[in-house]
Amino acid sequence: MDAAESRAFMLRAIDQARACISEPDRVSPKVGAVLVQDGALVAAAFRGELRPGEHAEFTLLERKLPDHTAAGGTLFTTLEPCTSRNDPKIPCVERIIERRIGKVYIGILDPNDDIRGRGELRLRDAGIQVGRFDSDLMGVIEELNREFVRLHRHRPPISRTKSELKDPVPDGETGPNGFPIGYTPEGDKVEWISDPDDPDGSWPLLLRRGDSAIFAEYDELWHKVWYNRHQVLMAQVARGDRVIGPDQEEIFRTAEEKARALEDKYGKDNLRWNDFEWGLLSGRMSALSWVLGAEWDESLDT
Q: Within this chain, do residues 21 and 145 fall inside the same structural domain, yes or no?
């Protein structure tokens, strides 16, 4: 089976997953499964297709193909097969092993910490070849299962003491570690932690940056965002994709002067990034915008 044929069956499994409907009062994964032998489709199934809550692999192998000889076949499943079920149910990974499947293509690993990676390892331990869906299709499956993924990747909210949230801090207020809270000359809110090597000394544990530091950082990042946008415009003009009209020439000259001033201030090496660094910058900008009062979903459009 070549790469094009494999991808076609991956897409078929994803189409099956799209048909899933969560059971009432719970978020369940959207899973599709396809069995292939000798390069031909044998059968396909999705979670809950015949009975609510039944896993796609169970529906495929036990409901649709109970008497079919699946040995040596290739299974495409959008989610890593489960490794544990409530007794007397049998995990899907064990059913796959029992049916002597030769190879299993997995779309994404299960986001549940109790399962993630264990299904793949169990298959490999049983001598079954394991492959992965094409990387671009993994994102499609995660988007299809965004609520299920979010459910298992959720982290408890960070707890904050009243002293961390309230300003100004009343006299005698202590921080999360039991030490006095105050402010540095720069306006940062800190907890003054006792220095074990100096009974009369202490060091500041930062709780919240001062407004002046936040605004300074915000302005610097926006300067860099503007500079990169200006460079894109200049490249478009140089290629002839954009034309600067007579009424825009003065604005363009002013922008050029500003760009040169930013290069002098920050240095060219500190004004250009690759895609990964640009992603980090966008995240920092969004966080700062939110701190300054913007709504999270509209905090930055870079």
A: yes
